[in-house]
Amino acid sequence: RATYYAATNPRDLVGGACGYGDLVKSGYGMSTVGLSETLFERGQICGACFELRCVDDLRWCIPGTSIIATATNFCAPNYGFDPDGGGHCNPPNKHFVLPIEAFEKIAIWKAGNMPVQYRRINCRKEGSIRFTVDGGGIFISVLITNVAGSGDISAVKIKGSRTGWLPMGRNWGQNWHINADLKNQALSFEVTSSDKSTVTAYNVAPRNWDYGQTFEGKQFETP
Predict the structure, then answer these.
(1) What percent of the chain lies above the pLDDT cut of 70?
(2) Any idea where the Expansin-like EG45 domain is (predicted)?
(3) Residue 169 and residue 44 in contact, taking contact as beta carbons nearer than 8 Å
(4) N or C of the chain: less Cβ packing under 10 Å?
């Protein structure tokens, strides 16, 4: 089933359990979705794309419509309610929480909690994969956004111009980290998605890169 939220404050569009920050600046806009615990996979699903359509309710569904949304957030369970009551995101429910702008494309907003059909689909993104480098000292954190193909990332490696390939660990969502002194070295990235596809982006960041900067690399091809 799917519900919606209305962003009454611009800050509601910033943050989320996948770590994408400002969803508009990150390129996701209103085509986003928060997932219940059963679907969220502890953040590994972040970046995956879903197609949803409203079903089984002729009164509230808008027939012949569907939306495509990228997983950017987590809908936490509320164990004060049972799954059939107010605990929409409690296990074992497969629940989606959409911005009202997306929800209104498939159902009348007054409906509230609607039955939906969903499927995983390939993500189609404009432009290249983006790497936002943060951290300090020898701690490097990289947020990876705008990923096409399966959308969700299972492994990342980083390489300085004077090092070999170094595996990064998942910090949270699609933030990956490593302790390594890579300053004054051009940075390359190897990104592996959940369907085992890999892209290698060489010398994405120049030798004089700095924390807080975003760089673009190669993109996954989508059929």
Answers:
(1) 96
(2) 15-128
(3) no
(4) C
Q: Rounded to an integer, what distance in angstroms lies between the CA atom of residue 91 and that of residue 88? A: 9
- Per-residue pLDDT, 14: 59
Q: In angstroms, rounded to a whole number, what is the distance separating the alpha carbons of residues 97 and 32?
A: 9
* pLDDT average, residue stretch 97-117: 92
* Closest alpha carbon to 142 in 73, 191, 198, 207: 191
Strand partners, 192: 155, 198
Confidence check: pLDDT of 45 > 90: yes
Selection from 108, 114, 129, 135 nearest residue 191 by Cα? 129
201, amino acid identity: A
Identity of the amino acid at 124: R
Structure tokens at 145: 């956004």
- Structure confidence by residue, pLDDT tens digits, 202-213: 999 999 999 999
Distances from the Cα of 169 to the Cαs of 132, 160, 177, in angstroms? 15, 16, 5
- Take residue 38 and report the two structure tokens written for it: 């059963």
For residues 171 and 66, give the distance between their C-alpha atoms in angstroms, rounded to a whole number: 33
Q: For 123-158, write each residue's pLDDT tens digit.
A: 999 999 999 999 999 999 999 999 999 999 999 999
- Model confidence, pTM: 0.90
Q: What angle do CA 61, 63, 68 make, to 5 degrees?
A: 85
